[in-house]
Amino acid sequence: MDDTRTAAIVDEIVTGLREVIRRHRVTYAEYRSALRFLAETVEQGELPLLSDVLFEAVVDEVAQIDSEGTDTNVEGPFYIADAPMLDADGGTPVLPMRPEEPGDRLLFTGAVRSTARAALSSAMIDIWQANGDGLYSRFAPDLPEWNLRGRIHCDTDGDFAFTTVVPAPYDIPQHPHTGRVLNLLGKEPHRPGHIHVKVHAPNHRDLTTQVYFAGDPWLDHDVVGAAKPSLVAELQKATDTDNHGYVCRFDFVLTPEPDDHQSRNVAVT
């Protein structure tokens, strides 16, 4: 972000906050209390979670405006880069999980295409999700480092498949400052079950999104406000013999980069 744009945004934030102080006649005691609250939120590592709950869906809404592919969705605060690349070994890749990982086994299939319907055989999909208790590896104790995280490549037809568990709905982590703000706003902390993905293919815009599941009780009451109808997949009972409880399919469509952007990428490489 260039300094001119940064200055304009910061100026509007400052102006808006000053107007709130005037309109509500904020006292010195309230002002100091708010500063302590913000400082404690930062000290306890809650700021990313609180910010994502309150604001990230709006950032995603703005980012989606000029996209013609699959709807984007919030990344959330729990993404970790460089997850293990999963080896199919002649079968379907399986997300790393504990031997007795809670939840029904899910066979997730689909394809990655461009908006021109061309198969993107070189696409890579980065996947992560919470466990049955709503906890993410690397952010909760006692979970293996890469539990329910991994990356896969599409085949030559742009198709993909992986095995995981059906993600359960959960409440966002009950940190005190985030909980206090949600209580003040009258919001319940529920999130529908979802699987996060980042999809990458050369000369196409990267896609960060989530896939939700039909019938989830919190689809219309997502505390983040991120559950878009276009991102809801149907769960079906499995009929295979590989111990899958459910199957679902969801295809991802990527938007090509403009020609001038592709030219710059070629020049740089």
Give an overview in words.
The chain has one domain: Protocatechuate 3,4-Dioxygenase, subunit A (Sandwich), CATH 2.60.130.10. With about 270 residues, the chain is α/β, with parallel strands linked by helices. The protein has helices at about 5-25, 30-45, 45-65, 175-185, 260-269, and strands spanning about 105-115, 125-130, 150-155, 160-165, 170, 190, 195-200, 205-215, 230-235, 235, 245-250, 250-255. The chain is globular, with a radius of gyration of 21 Å.
Share of helical residues: 25-40%
Secondary structural class = alpha/beta
Q: For the residues shown, what is the average pLDDT?
A: 92
Strand content: 15-25%
Superfamily (CATH H level) name: Aromatic compound dioxygenase
The biggest sheet, with number of strands, parallel, antiparallel or mixed sense and barrel status, is: 5 strands, mixed
Summarize the SSE layout with pairings.
Blueprint (H helix, E strand, L loop, with lengths): L2 H22 L3 H16 L3 H17 L41 E10 L9 E5 L20 E5 L5 E7 L4 E2 L4 H10 L4 E2 L3 E6 L6 E7 L18 E2 L2 E2 L8 E4 L2 E3 L4 H10 L1
Parallel strand pairs: 1-11, 1-12, 8-9
Antiparallel strand pairs: 1-4, 2-3, 2-7, 5-6, 7-8, 10-11
Pick out its properties:
Protocatechuate 3,4-Dioxygenase, subunit A; 12 strands; alpha/beta; 20% strand; 5 helices; 269 residues
